[in-house]
Write a structure and sequence with these properties.
The protein has 178 residues and is mostly helical. It is built from 11 helices and no strands.
């Protein structure tokens, strides 16, 4: 008689949804998160991560800890009924200097949703890169490479914004009576 697979329960479904939510908030694709999980010491393919997020694969404790580390949250943040899901990527209290400036620049661009379908994704990528620049040693990335990539993403993001209108029509002298 063949063994029947144990179905993923409500808690497993909640963990899967939390992983996908945190990943998407950061603007990361599954390949990038799988790479970060592997870098955290738990080899994981994009296919396996996709199965986890879809609820087709159970998450064991080792997977949970590695995925949480890669997402920069505590493992309990991924569990139902655990700690409040405060996302450090969305906290405005104490972002790093680079991230703070990138967030200011993005805010200055205005409503990204209305500009271009790629703008929100570019903004998320810019924030992720800024976060990595603020703490490159913890992620093992080259500061020079991250800076170069961030400059390119910000240039792409600025190109999505409409050009500012020149409000100076040189007619100021006509507006005031003599």
């Amino acid at each position: 008689m063949a063994a029947r697979a144990i179905q993923i329960g409500e808690a497993g479904g909640s963990v899967a949804a939390a992983i996908a939510t945190y990943r998407q908030r950061r603007g990361w694709d599954q390949a990038y998160l799988a790479e970060r999980v592997s870098d955290a010491g738990r080899p994981m393919s994009t296919s396996v991560l996709g199965k986890i997020e879809s609820g087709a694969r159970r998450v064991d404790v080792d997977d949970l800890v590695a995925v949480a580390a890669a997402l920069e949250v505590s493992p309990s943040a991924l569990l139902p009924g655990g700690e409040e899901r405060a996302d450090p990527f969305e906290e405005a209290a104490a972002p790093g200097q680079v991230r703070a400036r990138v967030l200011e620049d993005i805010a200055a661009l205005g409503d990204l949703e209305a500009l271009d379908t790629t703008a929100p994704t570019l903004a998320a990528i810019a924030v992720r890169l800024a976060q990595e620049i603020d703490a490159p040693a913890s992620l093992g990335n080259s500061l020079q490479g991250l800076s170069k990539e961030l400059r390119q993403v910000l240039a792409d993001l600025r190109s999505c914004a409409p050009e500012e209108r020149d409000d100076d029509d040189d007619l100021d002298d006509l507006a005031t009576p003599d």
